Structure formats: C-alpha cells, structure tokens
C-alpha cells in the first residue's frame, strides 16, 4: 500500500473543532504503536476526556505527566496534537483525562493512499450493467475486477470511456461514483480495469478519504 506524504504545519491559533464521539488514535511518547480511543467529553481550554484504550497494561502507563500524541480526521485532513495525562479513572468507566492542547498540527495528504480490498459493485457503461468487485481503492480512483465470458459486451470497454460504479462503500452505505476508464487488461476469464474518479461531490470525496484512512489504520 502506497503511503501518503504528509505536509505538517503547526498552528498555535488553530481552534480545536471536534465533536463528542470522534474516533481518535493515541500513541505514547517514544512508542510507534497507535491505540484507538474516543472523545467522551471536554472542558474547553482545561482538559479532554478520552476512553481508555483496550490494551493490556496501558493503564499502568497512564500516569500524571505521561506524554501522548493524539490524531484524528477532520474534513479529510489529519489533525494532531501533543498532550499530557492529568489522571485516569476506572469507575464508573475507564477514562483518561488529558490536558487541552495549546496548538494543533495539520497533516495535508499530498498523495493518495491505496487500499487493497474486495468490495462488490455494479458497473454501468455503454456496454451494459455488470457485476464486479473493487480490488484497489484510493481517493483518486480504483481498480475493478470482472469475471467475463468471451461473449460479454463489457470486454469491448476501452480507455477514456465513462463508467458509473454503484456499491456499498463508507461502512456499508450505498454510494455512486463516476469515473473514466484508464486501462484494461484481460487474462483468460478475468478483466481488470483501472479507473480515475471524475466530478466527485466534495462531500463524497471527503467521505472516501476518511473511509480509506480509517480502514488503513487497521491494516
């Protein structure tokens, strides 16, 4: 999977614009491991309340003053900040209190991450409607795999033809994506099509990036 190149900018005046329930990734200073957490509450300019990650032994590391790095997605951009543990509790729920950040770091993705996947889809073209699967997905395009017979009209698909893809993306929600065919490869009964997305609605583009980023953290 191709890694995105990040442009990091530090902005002390950037407002922490975040909703309760936002999924986040937490890492301890000196560790490359990232642990899933969630924003439960906050007191502006004083502290944030996060779920304690479900990782054996991590509670013993959450001592007052322990340094943490927190990252989350906001409108297709990765936002990060450094903070320190204030305290943690185990009842009524396992929570950790951390200092409110005084500055944020913004990571702009310069290149698209690629996600290896198998997503059943329906492809509409001038050659009809055919069942297929997306096997490679990025914010800029995808690779589609068809099982074809020698008589199937879709074998005539060529570069620069328009396609419409319909399938369950974004955690099971139906989505429709328009794209243009870039290349076609046929080997026996398998046809692979490389396609570039076109005219995506900004909201769909943002959700696509967030979906890829979220799934990639678990791979």
From TrEMBL:
Q: Which GO terms describe its molecular function?
A: cyclic-di-GMP binding
What keywords appear on the UniProt entry?
Bacterial flagellum, c-di-GMP, Nucleotide-binding
- For the PilZ domain, which residue ranges apply? 109-213
Q: What is this protein called?
A: Pilus assembly protein PilZ
Q: Which domain of life is it from?
A: Bacteria
Q: Where is the Type III secretion system flagellar brake protein YcgR PilZN domain?
A: 20-101
Q: Which organism is it from?
A: Desulfovibrio subterraneus
